[in-house]
Amino acid sequence: MNYNVFNLLWQGLSGHKGWQQAWRSPEPKPRYDAVIIGGGGHGLATAYYLAREYGMTNIALLEKGWLGGGNTGRNTTNVRSDYMFPESAAIYDMALRLYETLGKDLNYNIMLSQRGWLTLIEDQHQMEGARHKANWLQCNGVDGEIIGAAQVAQMMPGLQMKGRYPVRGAFLQKRGGTIRHDAVAWGYARAADRLGVDIIQNCEVQGFEQENGRITAINTSRGRIETDRVGVAVAGHSGVIAEKAGFRLPITSHCLQAMVSEPVRPFLDHVVISPGTGVYINQTQKGEMVMGGVLDLYHSYGQRGNFPTIEKVITSAVEMFPAFSQMRLMRHWAGIVDISPDSSPILGQTPVENMYINCGWGTGGFKAIPAGGYMLAHSIATGRPHELAAPFGLNRFRDNRLVDEGAAAGIAH
Amino acid sequence: MIVINCPYCGQDRHEEELTYGGEAEIIRPVDPTTVSDETWTDYLYFRNNPKGIHHEQWCCSAGCGQWFKVARDTVSHAVLEVVTFDKRLSA
């Protein structure tokens, strides 16, 4: 059933009893042309583009829990594409451009809100860095501009301008903003399912059967599945899957937390990050303040928060917006992110011949979902990296050709 | 919150007082010019990333300043073993 205003009206008048299930829950078949591991945004996008762009429909997606139950449902829903290097700008901007039309493509409202993404500028060095970045973005054909302190104060009346980190201006990407995160997973799932992809939940990968350096079958908690090609999009758990397949990745897994306040009236119209405190904030359509900060610097697979980080984020948020001091925290959560040495993704071929990977997005995986899925689908379908993914191959760590976006875009880890 | 008893100064230190130093027992090739690119980049970039027991190094940075080794569960954060830097972990 297509979602449209007439259906909504009809269902509204008939008590909302006629809505169909958005996707099937099929039993796994004994064999597929390709299997995608990971039912988060990237895995679901891979399944969708593999079926739509590359015509592979005898495929399955395996998810050990439920769809979007990992990082896709645990992030701060931010999107932007103001990365510096041409390689990164191309791929992150492709993601944002695909997001801009995704609601129509999927017939699913992903609630894209391009409300503007502001990085505050708090000292002379950051101002110089921002000018440098603005020039890079202009060369890359991505939008981004520097605005003055007066305009920042006008855009965010509640922001403390003269605190410990006095605001001198901001770097603004107007196309940046937020998206309803669950809707991305559900929209892709529904669209992939309609194209014939078997989405199999509660199906954990336990091991691989290999012959001559190729995977022939996957052993799962729901039985053995034979396949010609395997795509992996499991973010923080990439190391676990790599170990089962017999290789190592230059990835460490860390816990990244976020938290949300009780809902309040409209107060903050944009997404804002303070480099001084490392905290970024936006207000949801429901009125809650979503706040995130730095990741826990030690290895972790514990999908839960801890108090030192909560304290840091909350004190910084109150410093930025003193009015928040009266608010109560409603809940907090954590996802396991996959940090690579250069803070850039790893896309394409693995040491196993017919296994392809999409990982290493670190703290910025959500904003990259459409591009990450597209790149992995291309690798699975053709056996070669997409031209935009070529600089991000695993071999860059062997050839010392890093894409050091960690230093360039000032990612906080 | 992670709390580790420093094997040098004997004090309980919580994670805010400690600095994490990544995987333990990584050995830098003595002469980088003679090893293969694979060995060298293994040393530079490739790390064990287990979901379970991880051997790692921590520094008592707000205390006595010494580095030591820890075996820790990366899911429960339980500290299983702490040894001084000259010893090997057994867990």
UniProtKB/TrEMBL annotation, chain A:
Localization terms from the record: Cytoplasm
Enzyme Commission number(s) from the entry: 1.5.3.24
EC class (word): oxidoreductase
Organism name: Paracoccus seriniphilus
GO molecular function annotations of the record: nucleotide binding; sarcosine oxidase activity
Family to which the UniProt record says this protein belongs: Belongs to the SoxB family.
Residue span(s) of domain Rhodanese: 35-78
Catalytic activity line of the entry: sarcosine + (6S)-5,6,7,8-tetrahydrofolate + O2 = (6R)-5,10-methylene-5,6,7,8-tetrahydrofolate + glycine + H2O2; sarcosine + O2 + H2O = formaldehyde + glycine + H2O2
Name of the protein: Sarcosine oxidase subunit beta
Keyword terms, alphabetized: Cytoplasm, FAD, Flavoprotein, FMN, Nucleotide-binding, Oxidoreductase
Cofactor(s) required, per the database record: FMN; FAD
A cellular-component GO term for this protein: cytoplasm
GO BP terms, alphabetized: tetrahydrofolate metabolic process
Pfam families, alphabetized: DAO
From TrEMBL, chain B:
GO terms (BP aspect): tetrahydrofolate metabolic process
GO molecular function ontology, one term from the record: sarcosine oxidase activity
Pfam families noted in UniProt: SoxD
InterPro entries per UniProt: SoxD, SoxD_sf
Matches recorded under Gene3D superfamilies: Folate-binding superfamily (3.30.2270.10)
The name this protein goes by in its record: Sarcosine oxidase subunit delta
